[in-house]
User: Fold this.
Amino acid sequence: MHGLFITFEGTEGSGKSTQISLLAEHLRSLGHSVRTIREPGGTPIGEEIRHTLKHSAENQAMTWEAELLLMNASRAQLVREVIRPALADGTIVLSDRFYDSTTAYQGYGRQLDLEMVKTSCSECRAAFSASIYVAFYARPHRGRGPRFFRAGGQRLPGHCVRRAKSHPATQRLRRRGTNLA
Assistant:
């Protein structure tokens, strides 16, 4: 028996993690084997990449292209090391984000060439995609908001998020992200 791969996409603070936790608990209560993962992350290498992207003070000079490649490196590792083996064992895999978030954040939000983003995502996931796609979008004032946001190459800490929510990149992401659903 093959497993099922379900991805949860959406804006920060829209409830993805909460819904993943609730669904995992319910599926386990029905006797299913369930694995929850997140992007970036999900493997030791992926968690190192996540730290570099989200929490490292030294990454302020990182280019958007480098960010895209790191996201895809984490995903490639996750697909090979966790997702494919789990599905082969019949496990249901619930993912907090997958490649649609990269398309939204790096393609629409960072305004990188969309074909380059899609090609790089396709290469790293080896034509692998979700069985079920669940999208959550919260209105800006309802979502928790990002802990960090990059504006003009600068990382803004949580106390600057209100300004970041009105930043053009955030507005583009909101407009385009709903088009992915």
Summary: The longest strand covers residues 4-10.
